[in-house]
Amino acid sequence: MLSQAVPYGAVIYAKDYRVLASFYEHVAGLTRREADEEYVLLEAPSFQLVILQIPERMAANITIDTPPRRRENTPIKLFLNVSSIENARQTAKGLGGELKGAEKEWRFHGVKRCDGIDPEGNLFQLQEAPA
After folding, report:
1. Extended beta strands in 1-119, E state
2. Domain that holds residue 122
3. Is 100 strand, coil or helix?
4. What is the pLDDT of residues 95-125, one digit of tens each?
């Protein structure tokens, strides 16, 4: 059994880890805890998100379209809490990502949710935390 002091987390490998970290920091309201020349560690209570730079030799072969092309062939999708999906939608757009429109929002277990893509095309979902 894990101690409560050890958070759950996820890692996203990125072509440009700084851009992606800034996106999740501002869209999902995560707090930047540490960073160096290869990664940024973002946190929320009981959760850490590490954005890790893909090695240059591999990153050179990756093209990120503008706007980013949706990467739908991955079996994992993050979901993160926000206080307002609409505010996050505007922030995401300004940082190179996108949330689907309000007409594509839905409820699951009584919580409003919406899918989006980050600046590198990774799928994610936001859920609006009840006030």
Report:
1. 8-14, 31-35, 39-44, 47-53, 78-82, 98-99, 106-108, 111-117
2. 8-56+65-128
3. coil
4. 999 999 999 999 999 999 999 999 999 999 9
- Total domain count, the chain: 1
Q: Write out pLDDT tens, residues 38-57.
A: 999 999 999 999 999 999 88
Amino acid at 86: E
Query: What residue type is 125 in one-letter code?
Result: Q
Task: Give the span between the Cα atoms of 87 and 94, in whole angstroms.
Answer: 11
Alpha carbons within 13 angstroms on the beta-carbon side of residue 15 total: 14
Q: Residue 20 gets which letter from DSSP?
A: H
Alpha-carbon distances of 89 from 3, 65, 108, 110, 114, rounded to whole Å: 35, 20, 19, 20, 9
What is the pTM (predicted TM-score) of this model? Answer: 0.89
CATH of the domain at 101: 3.10.180.10
